[in-house]
Specification:
single chain; alpha/beta; six-stranded mixed β-sheet; 8 helices; 6 strands; globular
Length: 240
C-alpha cells in the first residue's frame, strides 16, 4: 500500500502556537484554505483510492478540495487524530511546548510514558496502526491519503517505517500540507519521501506560524518565552 500522509492546512491555533489537539479544533485560516486548494493539482499524477481524515475539522477542511476533485467521500477515523496534549491543551507557553515535544520524541525509549492528562506512545501507535490496517484491507496495493496532524505523523512514520527513525523524525520539519510518503505492508514499511514544505510550494509555507506539531528546524517566538532551533533539538534529545 502507498500512504500519502499529509498534514492539515494552517489554523489560527497554529499561528498562535497553541497546543490545540481536542475535537473539534480550530478551522483553517485563509492561508490554510489556500494550502488545501493547492493539494489537488499537486497530487494530479497520483491514483488515489481512498481519503481518510481525523475527527478534527481542520483535516476535513483540508481534504475537501481533493475529495471534491476526485469524487471520493472521505473516511473519518479518530484514530489518526493529533497526539492529545492533555493537561497542556491550548497552552502556548514555552514550558508547555517543551514538555509536549520532550514527551513525544522521548517515546522511543519509553512507550508507556504518559503526557499528563493525555496519552502514552503505545496508545498513540495502537490507534493509528488500527486505522492503517483497516485501510490496507480495503485498498490492498492501492493508494490512500491520510489528512492528519504534524506530531502524530512524524511520530508514527519515525516509529513504524524504515528509512528514518524517531530521531530523524524529530529533526525534520513538517509544515502545513507537507507530505510523507510511506510504502509497504504490515510485514515492512519504508519512507519513500518526506516533503518539508507545502504541497503547493514554498510560497504557501510559513514556518514561523505552523504550530508546535510540525516544528523542529525554525525558531518560534511565543512572546519571547521560547528559544530557537538549538533549544528544540536539545529538548528532543533529552527525551530520547
Amino acid at each position: 500500500m502507498r500512504l500519502l500522509l499529509i498534514r492539515h492546512g494552517q489554523t489560527m491555533s497554529n499561528i498562535g502556537h497553541h497546543l490545540d489537539t481536542a475535537a473539534p479544533g480550530a478551522d483553517l485560516s485563509d492561508l490554510g484554505r489556500a494550502q488545501a486548494a493547492a493539494v489537488p493539482e499537486a497530487l494530479a499524477d497520483e491514483q488515489i483510492d481512498l481519503i481518510v481524515v481525523s475527527n478534527l475539522v481542520r483535516t476535513q477542511q483540508t481534504a475537501a478540495p481533493l475529495a471534491k476533485e476526485r469524487g471520493l467521500e472521505p473516511w473519518m477515523r479518530p484514530g489518526i487524530r493529533e497526539i492529545a496534549a492533555g493537561d497542556l491543551e491550548m497552552r502556548n507557553d514555552g514550558a508547555a511546548i517543551e514538555a509536549y515535544i520532550e514527551c513525544v520524541f522521548g517515546w522511543g525509549s519509553d512507550l508507556d510514558r504518559r503526557l499528563p492528562g493525555g496519552e502514552t506512545g503505545r496508545e498513540v501507535l495502537e490507534r493509528f496502526d488500527e486505522v492503517v490496517a483497516e485501510v490496507e484491507e480495503h485498498v490492498g496495493d492501492g493508494t490512500a491519503v491520510f489528512f492528519s496532524h504534524g506530531a502524530v505523523l512524524r511520530y508514527w512514520a519515525g516509529s513504524r517505517a524504515d528509512g528514518m527513525d524517531l530521531d530523524d523524525a524529530a529533526a525534520h520539519w513538517l509544515s502545513n500540507t507537507a507530505m510523507i510518503v510511506v510504502e509497504g505492508d504490515a510485514s515492512g514499511r519504508r519512507i519513500i519521501s518526506w516533503l518539508e514544505e507545502p504541497l503547493g510550494g514554498a510560497a504557501l509555507g510559513t514556518r514561523e506560524s505552523g504550530g508546535p506539531g510540525g516544528e523542529t528546524e525554525e525558531s518560534v517566538d511565543t512572546d519571547g518565552v521560547r528559544g530557537g532551533v538549538d533549544e528544540v533539538r536539545d529538548v528532543a534529545a533529552r527525551g530520547r
